[in-house]
Amino acid sequence: MFERHSTTAHAAYNDLLRSLLDDEVAEIRGTPTRVERNGKHYWYDTFRVGSDVRKRYIGEDSAPLRARLKRHADLRARAAERRAHRSRLVRLLRAERFLGTDGATGSLLSAMAAAGVFRLGGTVVGTHAFRLYEGELGVRYGFDQSASTDDVDIVSFERLSLVLQDVVEPPAQDVLADFDFEAVPSLHKGSVWRWRQTRSNTLVEFLTPSFAESEDLRPLAALRVTAQSLHYLNYLIADPIPAAVLYRSGVLVQIPRPERFAIHKLIVADRRLEGADSLKAYKDRMQADFLIEVLSEDRPDDLAEAFAEAQARGARWRERIERTLSRLPDAANRLEALV
């Protein structure tokens, strides 16, 4: 059985996340403007720099964002007060034994957030995302679940990256260079999607969903990087959610929905059995098993919907899921009970 954080700790995490979301709007310099592109609506901060009119992407239209935009003047005026409050919340969460992040990873994610990587569609996946479900779900992690990896994986949709018509500043590769990352050569001359830190061997990878049979390199215009395309990622990062990293006064990032993460891990675990990353399949199964246990109790409808959607995507999807579940009888029983 999993262990829960106190209601006080869970409330503090949600307060921290709410404050970080408020700060995204507090940074507006000009006039909030709604723009329609491809049938969707997006908000931009429209302002002048000399004689030029600039547009800075804020976010996709939603009721919570519209409510914040109405209060943006007040939010801007109270930014310093909120930052101090967030620092107190981070201290409280650490005292409640919430997982923090190491200084190297926290400072890197903070720099990426400041450049706009997550605001412009970047989604943290992998173990760093898994650890952040502690706050989203209000559950404690044991040693096996809390074991971290130095690697940072960031995924974004190529199409969304093009539609937004805004870019990170400074470029992601410049941010990485400031942290002593060097480009890892790829088979495609002039295209880089992986960076390795010279002093620690930490790896940062940029990924994007593949909508073709091949898994090639694709540009992410908004992030100003090239990304490796992979199958199944379109399912994983659909409708992502915000998350708060416990570093300094908090860092706002974006992660997949936990139910999609759990089902995607069932697929990835089977896929890795076929390649050089087979040792990582155990970790994939462990993370899926843990999340399915929590979600089957707390969010059964969300889990059932994500499971049904994955199964409906084709025989290959179902085969991979079934093969992994054959190794996870408890998870298989929980998912079967939802159908």
Automatic annotation (TrEMBL):
Pfam families: DUF6788 (PF20586), NTP_transf_8 (PF12281). Residues 24-64 form the DUF6788 domain. Signal peptide: none annotated. InterPro entries: DUF6788, NTP_transf_8, NTP_transf_8_dom. Residues 105-310 form the Nucleotidyltransferase-like domain. This is Nucleotidyltransferase. It comes from Polymorphum gilvum (strain LMG 25793 / CGMCC 1.9160 / SL003B-26A1).
